[in-house]
Amino acid sequence: LVDVAVQVHGVFAKAPGATAQTARCRRAWTVPRWARPSSQEKGQAETLGRRLFAGLVGLLLAIPRRSRAATGPPPPEDEIVKVIDGDTVNLKFAGRCRLIGINTPETVAPRQKEGAPPDCYGPEASALTKSLLPPGTKVKVELDVEPVDKYGRQLAYLYRSSDQLFLNAELVKQGAAKRYKVAPNVKYDAKFVELEKDAKAAGKGLWGACASKSPSTAGPGSAGSEVKDLKKKSCKDFS
Question: Does residue 153 have an active-site annotation?
Answer without folding.
Answer: yes
